[in-house]
Specification:
single chain; alpha/beta; Rossmann fold; seven-stranded parallel β-sheet; globular
Length: 233
C-alpha cells in the first residue's frame, strides 16, 4: 500500500466549497496535509472545515484574483506543494440552441480557470523551490471528463471542448515543467448519493485517486489522463 501520509504537504484545493472539493479537502486534512481552500466567498463561508484550513476567497476566472489568491497561499503556508483544481460546471443544449455566451461560459469556467490556476500555482511552486535545497515533488491535478477526454457528446459543445482542452493543458505542463507532475482525472458521472441504479463513479473513489496521485507513489504519474468511469460504460 502506498504511504498516504501527507503531513509534509501544502495542498491548494480550488472549488473547495463544491461537493467534490468539500470531501477532498476534509480527507486531505485527515491525512495531515496543510490545506488552502480557494473558492468564491459564499461557498467558503459554508465550508464546515474552513477554520482548519487557509481559506482564500477568489474568482477562478479572473487573472488578477487568481494571482493574488496563490500569492496569499504562499504567504500564509510558506510554500505550495500541490494544486487540485476542481472548479467547473456543466450545461448543455442542442447545437442550434447553444449561444456564444453559453459556449464561452463553459470554456471560461472549465478551461480558463484551470489554465490560470495551473500557471499561478506553478509560479509559487517554483519560487518556493528556489529557497528549498531539497524540494518535494510537486503536483498539478485537474478534473477533465469522459466527455472530452475520449470523445465529444451531443448537446455538450462548450463542456466537451473545454474538458478536451484540460487534457491538453495537463499534457503540455507535464512536458514542460521540471519537478512538477501534471495529471488529469476524467470521471464519468460523479455520484454523491447512494442510488444503486445510477451509473457512475462515487465521489469518495475520486478522492482516493487524488490521494494516490499526491502521495510519493504519484511521482510515476505524469501527463496522464486517469479515466475513472466506475460503473458507467
Amino acid at each position: 500500500m502506498p504511504d498516504l501520509d501527507l503531513a509534509d504537504r501544502v495542498v491548494a484545493v480550488t472549488g473547495a466549497g463544491g461537493r467534490l472539493g468539500r470531501g477532498l479537502g476534509r480527507r486531505l486534512l485527515e491525512r495531515g496535509a496543510t490545506v488552502a481552500a480557494l473558492d468564491r466567498p459564499a461557498p467558503l463561508d459554508d465550508l464546515a472545515w474552513q477554520r482548519d484550513a487557509h481559506a482564500v476567497p477568489f474568482d477562478a476566472t479572473d487573472e488578477e484574483s487568481v494571482a493574488g489568491a496563490f500569492a496569499k497561499v504562499q504567504d500564509r503556508a510558506g510554500r505550495l506543494d500541490a494544486l487540485v483544481h476542481t472548479v467547473g460546471t456543466w450545461a448543455g443544449a442542442p447545437l442550434l440552441e447553444t449561444s456564444q455566451a453559453d459556449f464561452e461560459r463553459q470554456v471560461r469556467l472549465n478551461l480558463t480557470s484551470a489554465f490560470l490556476c495551473f500557471r499561478e500555482a506553478t509560479r509559487q511552486m517554483q519560487d518556493g523551490d528556489a529557497l528549498d535545497d531539497d524540494p518535494p515533488g510537486k503536483r498539478l491535478v485537474a478534473f477533465a471528463s469522459g466527455q472530452g477526454a475520449d470523445r465529444g457528446a451531443p448537446q455538450q459543445y462548450g463542456y466537451s471542448a473545454a474538458k478536451a482542452g484540460v487534457v491538453r493543458l495537463v499534457e503540455g505542463a507535464a512536458a514542460e515543467l521540471d519537478g512538477i507532475t501534471a495529471t488529469a482525472i476524467a470521471p464519468s458521472t460523479i455520484l454523491f448519493g447512494d442510488d444503486p441504479d445510477q451509473a457512475g463513479v462515487p465521489a469518495a473513489r475520486l478522492v482516493s485517486l487524488v490521494e494516490h496521485v499526491l502521495s510519493p507513489a504519484g511521482d510515476a504519474v505524469n501527463g496522464a489522463t486517469l479515466r475513472a468511469y466506475g460503473s458507467a460504460r
